[in-house]
Design a protein that fits this description.
There is one protein chain. This protein is of the alpha/beta class and about 575 residues long. It is built from 18 helices and 16 strands. Helix 6 crosses helix 9 and helix 12 runs parallel beside helix 14. The mean pLDDT is about 95.
Length: about 575
């Protein structure tokens, strides 16, 4: 048994997340967590809302709420939606927690003591009309790198370049829209990442098993231009973790807070601490997950995120951990994802274009979304959500393959053998050959799941389902029963064992459906079980067991419904 720590990128607090956010971190992390638990490993699946920074302040102002109240309300909404999508977090915390305040301030103190934080006088955009400095996202303008016209003052979301507000072409205040901006002197704390460049480069170069997407972005930041740059870790905001630490006076920092990208990754650690404090006998158990001298060396740590988060997780957060010279656990594997687009373009809240989690879950069950998103995960390139693709996948994969197998088997058995699975033992060459074929694909499926090849895993699972239909078609129990009821009973009994097997191996993808199958078979549903015994897995059900009829496991989506949804979510 391994101990596996899994974190997904923290969803930002300002609003409901769209499907691209979901498939870019949380959903694939959940798939991996469910698989590893089922395989018998000890898993800590940790996430939290990312609550600091300018967007939270701006969103709260729009709602005429205090930022603290707004963040609490949105945390509840996001937690509820994650539950509805059956994301199996062991703990879903908050970056604004008391524990993250303290831990962030402790990290800053440790980095200061190691000579890795210094005060830098710099010029920052000041809005005369707003009467304040404009940190990062309070400024928008044209990116000097790619000419994207809505680049933010911290990063261009189009080309992922990290920016300063003063670098933008024709910058404007987000608060007032004013272009009457001037550069004024102010002081900020900087993390001296450049001093850790060689150590980070050596560490990244060791990760030859990471996805190319992950390592290529990290190496680009390390080698482009003058290499890894020092970066500011403070901002002029009201909402955030105050710049202070026991025993250190941060002169000139009284009204500043730590930059959200300094404190947000630290929330992985603080959320783990909050988890063990609230659920474990030993409140300090979090140290066994995060501190090597407490046992974390034996932990396998995996992070899931979209590509815009990769620089911070491959460089800035590791620099924070390495810079303290402590015993902090570094990530072992980073699974990065490209973008999910919507009907050929971007998701847009302002344009009401695209599908967000709250709307999606009201239209179709969670397993429909889980299946399409995971089987189309943007691993090696961007993926495009289209309603036609969604309709085809649900109708062909879920309804016609898995759903059809379940329906044909159960309805035939009910009509010919009543409420109980036919009794008997032994299988013919057809069943034995089917088992050999299924186990071949099952082995490949397990191997792909273990190394997080998500789309390949979905394809293999779909193939395993299809072998059940092929078996029923070839064995044709509806014909056999006319001459040999006992042989037909054997076919049905094997079909039920296949069905039980499918419910065990499909639960990382479609957990609710697998619960329904177990209920049909009157077998208790256990998320932490996996069919390991290859000799017994297809003969667990001996016959005589009662079952319940499932009318329709999946409902097909018709063309009229698709046209309606295309119009509704097509944007203004």
């Amino acid at each position: 048994m391994k101990r596996i720590l899994i974190t997904s990128a923290l969803p930002y607090i300002n609003g409901v997340k769209h499907l691209g956010n979901l498939v870019g971190s949380q959903l694939p992390a959940d798939l991996y967590a469910r698989f590893m638990r089922a395989k018998g490993h000890e898993v800590a699946f940790i996430c939290a809302t990312d609550e600091h920074g300018t967007p939270a302040e701006l969103a709260a102002k729009e709602k005429n709420m205090s930022t603290a109240d707004y963040c609490l309300e949105m945390w509840k909404i996001q937690k509820n939606l994650s539950d509805q999508f059956h994301l199996s977090f062991d703990f879903f915390g908050r970056s604004s927690s008391e524990s993250n305040y303290k831990l962030t301030q402790d990290f800053a103190k440790a980095l200061k003591n190691e000579g890795l934080i210094k005060t830098v006088e710099e010029k920052q955009l000041y809005s005369q009309e707003d009467g304040r400095f404009l940190p990062d996202r309070y400024v928008v303008g044209t990116c000097p790198e790619c000419s994207y016209e809505r680049a933010r003052g911290d990063q261009c979301e189009n080309c992922t370049r990290q920016l300063q507000g003063a670098e933008l072409i024709e910058p404007k205040s987000v608060l007032s829209g004013s272009s009457k901006l001037e550069l004024r002197k102010t002081n900020h704390l900087y993390l001296l990442q450049s001093k850790l460049q060689e150590k980070l480069k050596e560490w990244i170069n060791e990760k030859d098993n990471w996805p190319i997407l992950t390592t290529s972005i990290a190496k680009k930041w390390l080698t482009d231009g003058e290499g890894l740059q020092d970066r500011s870790i403070t901002r002029d905001l009201e909402w955030g973790i105050p710049v202070k630490s026991n025993g250190i006076t941060w002169e000139g920092m009284e009204d500043k807070v730590f930059y959200v990208w300094f404190d947000a990754p630290i929330a992985y650690i603080s959320a783990t601490a909050d988890w063990t404090k609230t659920t474990k006998k030993d409140p300090n158990e979090w140290k066994t997950w995060w501190l090597n001298d407490h046992g974390a060396e034996d932990v396998y740590y995996v992070q899931f995120m979209a590509k815009d988060n990769i620089p911070f997780h491959t460089l800035s957060f590791p620099a924070t951990l390495l810079g303290t010279k402590g015993q902090w656990k570094l990530v072992d594997y980073i699974k990065g994802f490209n973008w999910l687009t919507y009907e050929g373009g971007k998701f847009s809240t302002s344009m009401q274009r695209g599908l967000f989690m709250n709307d999606a879950i009201e239209i179709f069950p969670s397993d429909y979304w889980r299946w399409w998103l995971l089987s189309n995960a943007p691993e090696s390139s961007d993926s495009d959500f289209t309603w036609k693709s969604f309709q085809s996948s649900i109708n062909k994969d879920l309804a016609d393959v898995l759903g059809n197998f379940v329906s044909r088997l159960i309805k035939f058995s009910k009509s010919k053998f009543g409420d109980h699975i036919p009794v008997g033992s032994g299988y013919s060459d057809l069943e034995k050959n089917t088992i050999v074929e299924i186990l071949k694909y099952f082995k490949a499926y397990e191997e792909s799941m273990a190394i997080m090849e998500i789309r390949k895993s979905a394809n293999l699972l779909r193939k395993i389902w299809s072998l059940g239909n092929e078996y029923l078609q070839t064995s044709a129990p509806w014909t056999v029963i006319k001459q040999n009821p006992e042989e037909a009973g054997k076919i049905v009994r094997f079909g039920f064992n296949l069905l039980n097997f499918y419910s065990d191996i499909s639960k990382p993808f479609i957990p609710v459906t697998c619960q329904k199958i177990k209920s049909c078979l009157k077998i208790s549903y256990n998320e932490n079980e996996w069919p390991e015994n290859r000799e017994l897995v297809f003969s667990n059900l001996k016959g005589g067991e009662s079952f319940l009829v499932i009318e329709n496991l999946f409902s097909k989506i018709d063309d009229d419904k698709i046209r309606e949804l295309q119009i509704k979510f097509g944007g203004n």
